[in-house]
């Protein structure tokens, strides 16, 4: 058992306070830009480094705005109805991956219209660039002592002082770092390193993220104001991940079916 004593503020100089979570956002965006440039340099990639830089900038806007809107809509809509201006109180924290994903999809669509690229083409290019940022974000939540897991007696349990109950809990943030960050990146980077049917890479990202997130939700403490939605185990995170799994699996199936059909013509 280990007592969490990491200061959520990485750097404190006078009025300037730099939090771990903010730094991890920068790490994620920087990694996406660098990996995207690596892919853009490959012969026949169809992408330029300038396009990658532009796309990462717009993607960052989609992550931040969509993440905040998603958190308010999916997790705290009642508070928003009571105080609509709370939507803009970003300093209080509160981001949703699923909202961020929708935000990214929206800005990709807008960006693609300007640059004559389809949403599926952009999705296949961007998907392998995302997991490093997801993993970095989970490191940020762990460093900040947020979004902890349920109580456990396993030897690697962590006591998070902010829970005020003194119980050792699953470090679910680190589980997500390992699955949504490291493992998802390895699989997608390897899979996308060779030509694949259009939208297969995007579908694999959606399906695997949904599966990994759903698994970790089994040991992650649900949001206190929501609790379990049903069956004493179903959480909002799992409910939002189910469509990702189904849509992702469907996209993979359609992608390969079209590939076979095209090959047989």
List keywords for this structure.
3-stranded mixed beta sheet, 9 helices, two-stranded antiparallel sheet, 6% strand, 265 residues, 60% helix, mainly alpha, single chain
Characterization of the model:
There is one protein chain. The chain has about 260 residues and is mainly alpha-helical. Helix content is about 60%, strand content about 5%. The chain has helices at about 20-40, 50-75, 75-80, 95-115, 120-125, 130-145, 170-190, 200-215, 235-265, and strands at about 1-5, 10-15, 15-20, 160, 170. Strands 1-4-5 form a three-stranded mixed β-sheet, with no helix packed on it. α1 packs antiparallel against α6, α5 (about 120-125) crosses α8 and α8 runs antiparallel to α9 (about 235-265).
Structural category is mainly alpha
Following the backbone from N to C, one meets helices and strands in this order, namely EEEHHHHHHEEHHH
Write down the overall mean pLDDT: 90
Q: What global shape is seen?
A: globular
What strand line-up does the widest sheet have? 1-4-5
Strand content: 5-15%
Termini gap: 61 Å
| Portion in helices | 55-70%
Low-confidence stretches: none
Number of strands: 5
For the sheet with most strands, the description reads: 3 strands, mixed
Tally of separate helices: 9
User: How big is the Rg?
Assistant: 19 Å
Brief characterization of the structure:
This protein has 265 residues and is mainly alpha-helical.
């Amino acid at each position: 058992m280990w007592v969490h004593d990491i200061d959520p503020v990485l750097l404190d100089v006078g009025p300037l306070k730099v939090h771990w979570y903010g730094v991890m956002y920068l790490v994620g965006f920087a990694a996406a830009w660098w990996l995207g440039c690596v892919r853009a340099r490959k012969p026949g990639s169809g992408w330029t480094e300038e396009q990658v830089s532009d796309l990462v900038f717009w993607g960052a806007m989609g992550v931040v705005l969509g993440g905040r809107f998603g958190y308010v809509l999916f997790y705290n809509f009642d508070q928003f109805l009571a105080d609509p201006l709370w939507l803009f109180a970003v300093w209080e924290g509160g981001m949703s991956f699923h909202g961020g994903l929708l935000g990214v999809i929206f800005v990709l669509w807008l960006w693609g219209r300007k640059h004559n690229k389809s949403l599926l083409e952009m999705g296949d290019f961007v998907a392998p660039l995302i997991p490093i940022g997801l993993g970095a974000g989970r490191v940020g939540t762990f460093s900040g002592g947020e979004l902890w897991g349920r109580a456990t007696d396993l030897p690697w349990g962590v006591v998070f002082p902010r829970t005020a109950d003194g119980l050792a809990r699953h470090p679910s943030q680190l589980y997500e770092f390992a699955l949504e960050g490291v493992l998802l990146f390895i699989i997608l980077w390897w899979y996308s390193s060779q030509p694949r049917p259009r939208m297969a890479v995007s579908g694999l990202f959606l399906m695997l993220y949904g599966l990994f997130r759903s698994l970790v939700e089994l040991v992650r403490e649900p949001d206190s104001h929501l609790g379990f939605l049903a069956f004493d185990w179903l959480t909002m995170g799992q409910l939002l991940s189910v469509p990702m799994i189904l849509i992702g699996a469907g996209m993979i199936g359609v992608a390969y079916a079209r590939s076979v059909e095209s090959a047989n013509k």
